[in-house]
Write a structure and sequence with these properties.
mainly alpha; two-stranded antiparallel ribbon; 2 strands; elongated
């Protein structure tokens, strides 16, 4: 099976969504002047799922764009020069 940019994007979105949704901290904190902080609002499960998906989408788009640019640069160097 040949990897395409769409398949790489989809796999990266799902892995990023699982990663950011699981370890992401989406609570709202208040920081006092002395440096201590407390939770103002606890994030619900739907907050973690939604914000994790949005962050994963941005991450996957950025990562796939970098991969596409890298591929274009490498392929440009590999092309043989045209004889005169």
């Amino acid at each position: 099976m040949r990897a395409t940019y769409i398949s790489i994007f989809v796999v990266t979105v799902f892995l990023g969504w699982a990663f950011f949704g699981w370890i992401g901290d989406f609570n709202v904190y208040v920081v006092n002047r002395d440096g201590s902080r407390w939770i103002k609002q606890h994030a619900t499960l739907s907050d973690a799922v939604l914000f994790g998906f949005v962050i994963a989408l941005v991450f996957a788009a950025f990562e796939t764009a970098l991969l596409w640019l890298w591929s274009k640069l490498v392929n440009r160097r590999r092309q043989p020069s045209k004889p005169n």
